[in-house]
Each structure stands twice: as structure tokens, then as C-alpha cells.
Amino acid sequence: MLKIIGSEEWCVFKELGIPAIKARVDSGAKTSSIQATNISVFRKKKEDWVKFEVNPIQDNRSITVDCEARLVDRRIVKSSSGISEERFVIRTPMTMGDDTFEIELTLANRDTMEFRMLLGREALNGRFMVNPAKSYMLQTFTEDSISASYAPYMKEKTGLKIALLASNPNLYSNKRLIEAAEARGHEIVFLNVELAYMKLDARSPE
């Protein structure tokens, strides 16, 4: 009997060292993909392997997991923007709820995507049915458990303290600025421009 999953689910990749990552479930996509940067191929046991970095948590690029896996293929994949590109393909065990099984993952730069992972129909076939109105049917993680799981990957802050003067911290451009600063170890503080003022007076500036 097929299990029911939602349009968003938590996935675990123990062999890659990823304790939890949110995935967008998309039965319209054939192949699953995971966010990966700094990808490089190397030889191990007379086989091609690939090293890459994953930022598994949305809106937090300061957490980076170094991964490696055997390279099983190089494949031309059409991105969500309609552009065809060559991607590295790996095969690794994935856990969803109580089920663990191997899936193929293409390594893709998903920095501009809301979700760090996309779960395609090849991983779903014969296992799950999707209820798009639901989310996180198999497993949930609290913020505290996520923080505890990723504590070893958090870098000690040694950067600057930066003020961002803007009107809305949730605008895409402001969020990217905040993410970029935090990923580089800086502390960034949002200041609402609507609550600030500057008096340009040579005698009594404020």
C-alpha cells in the first residue's frame, strides 16, 4: 500500500552527513536534485567520486555540510527556467519517516530556489502518493532539534556587525543580503528606515 506524503517533506541523508533537509515534492519532475556548490571530481578506489558542499537549511547559508559520493553519471537536465545543463549524478540512501531507500540525485545550484532539494517522481514511484494540500506527513523537526543536529557545522562568529537600513526585511534582495552576510560569519542587524531619521545640519546634526 502506498504511503501518503505532502507537497513538502523532510529527508535525511546519513551517508552524506545531512541530518535533515526540506524537499519540495514534485511529481512533474523526473529526477531528484539537491543544492550543491564547489563541486569537484576525484579518484577513489579506481572510481570517480565527487566532492561538494550543501547548505541544507533555508535562509541560513552559514551552515555548510561537506559531502562526497561515488559519481554514477553525468546527465543533461532541463532546469526550471528551461535551460539544459550537464549535472553530476550520485546515488545515496535517503530516509523519509520510517523508510530508507536509495535514490539518484543530481547536483544543482539551487541558491535561488526556495527549497534546497527537489524530490522527483523516480523516487516516489511504487512508494508514495502525493497529497498536495498536505505538508510533512512522515516526519517533522522542531527548530531546537534542527539547531542541535547542525550545531557541529556552525562556525564561530568572527566577522563584522553590520546594520541593514531598509523598509522590509522580507524582500528578496534584503533576504539575500542577510544570507550572504551570515554565510560569511557577519552579524547583520535590520533597522527599519521608517523609524529612523537623519538631520543634516552643520550646527546640530542628528
Write structural notes for this entry.
The protein folds into 2 domains: 3-153, Beta Barrel (Cathepsin D, subunit A, domain 1), CATH 2.40.70; 161-195, no CATH class. A hairpin with a 4-residue loop joins strand 2 (8-13) and strand 3. With 206 residues, the protein is mostly beta strands. It has helices at residues 121-124, 143-150, 172-183, and strands at 3-5, 8-13, 18-25, 32-35, 37-44, 47-54, 65-78, 84-96, 99-108, 117-119, 128-130, 161-166, 187-192. A 9-stranded mixed β-sheet has the order 2-3-10-4-9-8-7-6-5.
Key features?
206 residues, mainly beta, Cathepsin D, subunit A, domain 1, 2 domains, nine-stranded mixed beta sheet, two-stranded parallel ribbon, 12% helix, globular
CATH level-two architecture of the largest domain: Beta Barrel
Number of strands: 13
Strand content: 35-45%
The fourth-level CATH homologous superfamily of the largest domain is Acid Proteases
What are the low-pLDDT stretches, counting only 5+ consecutive residues below 50? none
CATH topology of the largest domain: Cathepsin D, subunit A, domain 1
In percent, how helical is the residue content?
10-25%
Largest beta sheet, briefly? 9 strands, mixed
- The CATH class name of the largest domain reads Mainly Beta
The side-by-side strand order for the widest beta sheet comes to 2-3-10-4-9-8-7-6-5
Q: Layout of SSEs?
A:
Elements: E1 3-5, E2 8-13, E3 18-25, E4 32-35, E5 37-44, E6 47-54, E7 65-78, E8 84-96, E9 99-108, E10 117-119, H1 121-124, E11 128-130, H2 143-150, E12 161-166, H3 172-183, E13 187-192
Parallel strand pairs: 1-11, 3-10, 4-9, 12-13
Antiparallel strand pairs: 2-3, 4-10, 5-6, 6-7, 7-8, 8-9
